[in-house]
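User: tokens in, sequence out, please.
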């Protein structure tokens, strides 16, 4: 089944076009339900956790976690998305180049401890902002091009601190009905990508079919949330 979407690619310029044309149906106005329900499992009693948001868009989840006392680092290619995040949440921000990441810019609200890097995720590394105590991956593994999944998993694993708790949201549907993104990522592939160095636990599985996906031609959609932790420190 994964083969059906294996060669589908979205260029970074196509994502930027979506932002410019406001075709951002993936953006959620409310804090993600799966994050709220599984918050305790991710935080695991810790305070002031450093959260990483790969492909962050303008997710309101970032503000929610910052308001709870955590810090947030996100990576997003679209400058428009990053600026809208701060503006829509009434936050001021500074803007500066990133010496360790040529071409990238860092947008930051230091009061709330939110740092968003405008960059291609695949240029990012732990040498830019260290490793993280938690990762919230919604609309990220499912959004990158299927052929980049191994590279993505290696990068994410390299960003995990020893105590990192990585919450991964995936989607299951019939890939012959819709070309994506978001792409179909079966549980077996999650195990294949992360299982050799991490423990993978399915925390939640819900029927997530709404009119939005019916309009794509889907007749069923399951959203799975996995908790991924390192078997041994990096
Ligand atoms: N996680 C967010 C956004 C999901 S959509 C949410 O849940 O709302 C995927 C986002 O990733 C888009 O905003 C797109 O502009 C960005 N993106 C896609 N490929 C990227 C890449 N290689 N590096 C950085 N950002 C990327």
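Assistant: Sequence out:
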């Amino acid at each position: 089944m994964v083969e059906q979407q294996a060669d589908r690619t979205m260029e970074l310029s196509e994502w930027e076009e979506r932002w410019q044309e406001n075709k951002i149906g993936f953006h959620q106005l409310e804090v993600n339900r799966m994050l709220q329900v599984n918050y305790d499992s991710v935080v695991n009693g810790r305070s002031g956790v450093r959260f990483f948001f790969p492909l962050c868009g303008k997710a309101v989840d970032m503000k929610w976690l910052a308001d709870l006392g955590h810090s947030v680092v996100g990576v997003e290619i679209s400058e428009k998305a990053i600026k809208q995040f701060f503006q829509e949440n009434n936050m001021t921000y500074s803007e500066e180049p990133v010496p360790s990441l040529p071409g990238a810019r860092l947008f930051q609200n230091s009061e709330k401890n939110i740092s968003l890097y405008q960059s291609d995720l695949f240029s990012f590394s732990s040498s830019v902002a260290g490793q993280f105590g938690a990762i919230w991956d919604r609309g990220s593994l499912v959004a990158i091009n299927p052929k980049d999944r191994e590279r993505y998993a290696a990068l994410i694993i390299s960003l995990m601190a020893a105590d990192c708790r990585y919450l991964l949201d995936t989607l299951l549907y019939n890939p012959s009905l819709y070309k994506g993104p978001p792409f179909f990522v079966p549980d077996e592939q999650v195990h294949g990508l992360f299982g050799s160095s991490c423990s993978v636990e399915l925390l939640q599985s819900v029927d997530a079919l709404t009119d939005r996906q019916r309009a794509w031609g889907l007749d069923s959609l399951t959203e799975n949330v996995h908790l991924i932790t390192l078997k041994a420190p990096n």
